[in-house]
Amino acid sequence: MSATVLDGTAVSHSLLDATAARAAAFAASSGRTPTLATVLVGDDPASRTYVKMKRSRCAKVGIGSRAVELPASTTTEQLVAAISALSADPTVDGILLQHPVPAHVDERAAFEAIAPGKDVDGVTMHSFAAMAFGEPGFHSCTPGGILRLLDAYDLPLTGRRAVVIGRSPILGKPVGMLLLARDATVTYCHSRTADLAEAVREADVVVAAVGRPELVRGEWVKPGAVVVDAGYNPGNVGDVEHAAAAERAGHITPVPGGVGPMTIAVLLEQTVRAAEAGR
Fold this sequence. Notes:
Blueprint: E1 4-5, H1 8-30, E2 35-41, H2 45-60, E3 64-70, H3 76-88, E4 94-97, H4 107-112, H5 125-133, H6 141-152, E5 161-165, H7 172-181, E6 185-189, H8 196-201, E7 205-208, E8 226-229, H9 242-246, E9 251-252, H10 259-278
Parallel strand pairs: 1-9, 2-3, 2-4, 5-6, 5-7, 7-8, 8-9
Helix pairs in contact: 1-10, 5-7, 6-7, 6-10
Keywords: Amino-acid biosynthesis, Histidine biosynthesis, Hydrolase, Methionine biosynthesis, Multifunctional enzyme, NADP, One-carbon metabolism, Oxidoreductase, Purine biosynthesis
Function: Catalyzes the oxidation of 5,10-methylenetetrahydrofolate to 5,10-methenyltetrahydrofolate and then the hydrolysis of 5,10-methenyltetrahydrofolate to 10-formyltetrahydrofolate.
GO biological process, one term: tetrahydrofolate interconversion
């Protein structure tokens, strides 16, 4: 058996087309474009590349972008002040703080300075609570993108055993909440889980998001399972041993081209939704 590829690039194009149409409609009715502010602290090359890519994608769908670049010496207080100013600015609809920030900065304090109505990256405690309780709000972009990708392929979640490998507050934990809201039975695992292989073998859905190259071995995968590889490591290597897993899985995401494009598409869609809600 060879798994069906969950093509995030193709699915994201449909979402981006719809987002572009909504952005144009908003601009026509309000007289301004939806705007995403990106905040970059320091000069990490990878972070700078990610921000540049997100701003380029904004332009392609008719979303304005405002770049706020701060030196690596920026304190927590200075960063919180900058984000608070963006939160109070009526011409800014969404705020993205590129992470990680320098080690001396309290990242959680910075995230919490983002107004809930502008948290289009879904990183605040307010957004997490909304995901956990099924209330209106913005999803963390990667988890939200994963659910949309599964929906695009009409993959059922009700009653399925789902294993989430990873416990980060913006990926592992929220994707588990979103799966639980779809009536999946969710087990959280991580790099220190005893007998991780056995947990994976019982899973109908596996979401790997721990940041360790090929941690999930192909032989662990249950035949016919859905495998979502949300990891990205140097050399275009995910958290799953892809070739071996694809021989057993029913559906699998590629790395790259799976989860990544969906993450950006959800970010932009949520920015337009924030603009619509705030007008």
